[in-house]
């Protein structure tokens, strides 16, 4: 069982967010699209560049939202998993954004579970800014519950991504640019 402390936002979070990162898209276990209908672009953890002085090891696990761009595509709102996918019990920590196309984009509900499905971007550069923390990563009993939770995260990320504020504008500008994460 999770304790109350684990379910609230880690309090160091205000110092860490927003955080920018760049890396390359690598292959994971291929479960995102096939089992969940929710593809995620897994970042190469060997090539991660962070805008702040933090290592992958110390980066708080959890489900975040932010903005992201792969290769020469547009900037999209993203729902992002950072951690060990406890439903599956992975040994390694991953950072995996799911990019959400806008409602009118034909790719927006193209996946088997009605979420965004784009083409594959393996080996391409991904730019990501994590803006907010949404919840801890949890071990779900069964894929249906995991999918339901992720769909809730996607809906929340869409809402947050439609707000108008300075942080969001600044982070979108950076994702749109080719500036390095760390200057
Ligand atoms: P893997 O375990 O290899 O990451 P996934 O099924 O999670 O497998 O994702 C496969 C690939 O699908 C991603 O690496 C990415 O190139 C592509 N992809 C397609 N649509 C999206 C999307 N909406 N968000 C993120 N990646 C996507
Ligand atoms: N995996 C979990 O085991 N528990 C979670 O709570 C969880 N939440 C997620 C939330 C979002 C928005 C996304 C995109 C993924 C999440 N995942 C979670 C990761 C999921 O298990 C993983 O993307 C697939 O297994 C494919 O690698
Ligand atoms: Mg993935």
TrEMBL record:
Q: Which InterPro entries does this chain map to?
A: Riboflavin_kinase, Riboflavin_kinase_bac/euk, Riboflavin_kinase_dom_sf
| The keyword Nucleotide-binding is assigned to this record | yes
Q: Which UniProt keywords apply?
A: ATP-binding, Flavoprotein, FMN, Kinase, Nucleotide-binding, Transferase
In terms of domain of life, where is this protein from?
Eukaryota
Q: What is its EC number?
A: 2.7.1.26
**Keyword Transcription listed:** no
- Name all Riboflavin kinase domain ranges: 16-162
Enzyme class label: transferase
Can you supply a Gene Ontology BP term from the record?
riboflavin biosynthetic process
Which SMART domains does this UniProt record tie to the protein?
Answer: Flavokinase (SM00904)
| One function term, GO molecular function aspect | ATP binding
Pathway stated in the Swiss-Prot or TrEMBL entry = Cofactor biosynthesis; FMN biosynthesis; FMN from riboflavin (ATP route): step 1/1
Under the heading Pfam families, the entry gives: Flavokinase (PF01687)
Q: What is this protein called?
A: riboflavin kinase
